[in-house]
């Protein structure tokens, strides 16, 4: 990037967004885009993907088109950009015909720097003709994994993007962004969007401010109640896999006196919108929801995300869990695991409208999530390795890393399992294998003659569920694999054969309880923090925008520590640019001064 363009980008970062320096990967992507190159950025939730296209958009002449499937995110980002002084709008299904016509005229008149659109809008002939009349130097595609059949959220409407881009002349710079993508998905993104020798940036998937925990065998409702009640002032999301469980969890929390909201596709649109707004404005501290909620919700101060059930794949889990701690402050991500949840996910796959090829992919993805729940290695490292980063380091924070119980040698039990799988010709699944090992008097066991195997009853002193758990851990640790099918079959890997030959030992430990993470930075004066939050809320209600679009919690925390007295001191705080200081700065300085004087 030429020195002049670099200087302009950094000036926009400081004056508009209030940051002194770019985060990892941002400047490389921005430099490529401003130099006229296509780009693909894979950056975890909270790493600042949006800055990578918003800064170039502010610097370029003409209109930047942002393709995003997330109507809620469009509104949040449009609000935030307008707050920062960059005129931005959106076009989606929430607009009436009259509003749409007005919006088209305003865009044609050059009133906006960025326009957010849903991918389905690109299938409208009227809209594609309209694009041909505009000066569009740059197109950003958010949630770009949706273009891939191998991605966790494939959307056919994304396949029309490249066709529409061919109608814009001259050809715009195209940049694709996503939080999670395996190597196979990355290549699909480049191919389907026809990116031309793109700048490729993958910043790594680790979230250093998050702690991950898997809880097995707990009373879910009791755990949820204790956890939420212990954090009365913190915002959190509780994800459940079905509408019924959302209703039950929400009712349970309400009976305990916890002000919780609900969100799922079975509710009226008005209630969903109202509950979402109450949560964004901090009126509701807890949202209980299906995965219909939160994708693209740019709420920065979510302190915890609890999954009441297992998700359908690691990508979904990491994206949903990653809604905690977007402001960089510590966040907790807890998964409450129960074996029956896996059956629920399999049922949802079978009831889905996907073809058989897609269902096979979904079963394979589900196996990856089950392995996450049973692994004994660092949970963060499991995730980053899943996405293709073999160099992932142990985080030191997750429930596996902080487990200080002694490691047990389970080599003999592992050999019994591997031997049983081998004698069953590697043609059966976990449940049948566990029944044989326990010595179950089962019709199917007798049907196949497994009662005559030498491994029949080899673990008769153990409960079947304990044997199943052992097998799941051995799969998670790479000694066995499961086929990608509705009824997965166990197969042995080379590691298992080494154990059977007595050349390697196997060690395990039981997954521990979740642990809280203390704040890593001085939180400052809590009383002042609450006063600043109330002032922020006053401005938010007056302007009808979510509080975090004015200042993030992390910005308020830094104000509590620095206690600025002047404009220059306040502008040194991350997240405060000149435009925001001009609108709000004096009121916040006055409040900080009054607090310091004890008034």
From TrEMBL:
Domain Helicase C-terminal as annotated: residue spans: 223-367
EC number annotated for this UniProt entry: 5.6.2.4
Keywords (A to Z) from UniProt: ATP-binding, DNA damage, DNA recombination, DNA repair, DNA-binding, Helicase, Hydrolase, Isomerase, Metal-binding, Nucleotide-binding, Zinc
Catalysed reactions, as listed in the record: Couples ATP hydrolysis with the unwinding of duplex DNA by translocating in the 3'-5' direction
Broad class of enzyme this protein falls into: isomerase
InterPro entries according to UniProt: DEAD/DEAH_box_helicase_dom, DNA_helicase_ATP-dep_RecQ, DNA_helicase_ATP-dep_RecQ_bac, Helicase_ATP-bd, Helicase_C-like, HRDC-like_sf, HRDC_dom, HRDC_dom_sf
Any one Gene Ontology BP term: DNA replication
Domain HRDC: 522-599
Example of a GO MF term: metal ion binding
Signal sequence annotation: none
Top-level taxon in the UniProt lineage: Bacteria
Residue ranges of every copy of the Helicase ATP-binding domain listed in the record: 30-199
Cofactors: Zn(2+); Mg(2+)
SMART domains, A to Z: DEXDc, HELICc, HRDC, RQC
GO cellular component assignments: bacterial nucleoid; cytoplasm; replisome
Family recorded in the similarity comment: Belongs to the helicase family. RecQ subfamily.
Name of the protein in its database record: DNA helicase RecQ
